Automatic annotation (TrEMBL):
GO MF: UTP:glucose-1-phosphate uridylyltransferase activity
Domain Nucleotidyl transferase: from-to ranges: 4-262
Top EC class for this record: transferase
Protein name, UniProt field: UTP--glucose-1-phosphate uridylyltransferase
Stated family: Belongs to the UDPGP type 2 family.
Stored Gene3D superfamilies: Spore Coat Polysaccharide Biosynthesis Protein SpsA, Chain A (3.90.550.10)
Cross-referenced CDD domains: UGPase_prokaryotic (cd02541)
């Protein structure tokens, strides 16, 4: 059973500058709630019991958001505005935090969750990737494959040819209800191995931590998750699942605006 999940939220959010100088990308509003609220809710709706949010020095607003606000609650009560207390409700789940000293890459952020995870399978949700689906939440779709196979599962999405250079792209073969991953290429400049890109939902077994520890810094000094996945591929099967639903990357302004419109109506 997958009970725990890591949400890496310590990146600099450079694509969203200048707002991210002062507001973390994960705290950008979607309606009147910040993006990360919905990501934690997705974890809850997928059956996760504990999440670890990886933050950084300049992102205390994420901790503040998931804290209880006794003062506001008291104020609303004293003004007979109890009906507004529902706006202070948080997703019902235990939330833990750890700080990444500096943004050394997604792989490094996930490695910080090693002690939190212990010896269990776990989920990873990237808080800038959203999937709006009328079926099960994105993470749950992967958990269903994990339940059947007991193997690591990576979320995939078909992406237009000219966009593949921005993603990890897999080579794989079709199985009954999933794809067996044979190779994964990070941001292929030419000849992408397929049109299936990795999107920000994963189920890993704790073996990934050993691979993350073995990964060396890439050209940009970052510890890449893709390199650890490649390492894992050498020792065990990894599956991919094409996630059903519409995907939005809030690091892309047009997609953020579109998502904002959708969520404001909810
Ligand atoms: P991204 O690369 O999409 O986010 O990482 P970023 O680096 O913040 O944004 P850009 O590319 O500069 O615009 C995916 C997720 O991983 C987290 C980010 O916060 C984001 O939610 N991340 C990334 C970390 O937690 N630590 C890192 O070192 C890198």
């Amino acid at each position: 059973m997958v009970r725990k999940a890591i949400i890496p939220a310590a990146g600099y959010g450079t694509r969203n500058l200048p707002i991210t100088k002062a507001i973390p990308k994960e705290m950008l509003p979607l309606g009147l709630k910040p993006a990360i609220h919905y990501i934690v809710e997705e974890a809850v709706q997928s059956g996760i019991e504990q999440v670890l949010i990886v933050t950084s020095k300049s992102k205390s607003s994420i901790l503040d958001y998931f804290d209880h606000s006794m003062e506001l609650e008291a104020l609303l009560r004293s003004k007979n505005k109890e009906y507004m207390l529902k706006h202070l409700e948080l997703p019902k789940i235990r939330v833990f935090f750890i700080r990444q000293p500096y943004a050394k890459g997604l792989g490094d952020a996930i490695l910080l969750g090693k002690e939190f995870v212990g010896n269990e399978p776990f989920g990873v949700l990237l808080p800038d990737d959203f999937v709006i689906s009328n079926q099960a939440p994105a993470l749950k779709q992967l958990m269903d494959v994990f339940k059947e196979t007991n193997r690591d599962v990576i979320g995939l999405k078909q992406v237009k040819q000219d966009q593949l250079k921005n993603y990890g792209v897999i080579k794989g073969s079709n199985k009954a209800n999933h794809i067996e991953i044979e190779n994964i290429v990070e941001k292929p400049k030419n000849d992408p191995p397929s049109n299936l890109a990795v999107i920000g939902r994963y189920i890993f077994t704790p073996e990934i931590f050993k691979c993350l520890e073995d990964v060396e810094e890439g050209v940009d000094g970052e510890i890449q998750l893709t390199d650890a996945i490649k390492g894992l591929l050498g020792t065990q099967s990894i599956y991919g699942k094409i996630i059903s639903g519409d995907r939005y990357d809030i690091g892309i302004l047009e997609e953020y605006v579109e998502l904002m419109n959708i969520m404001s109506k909810k």
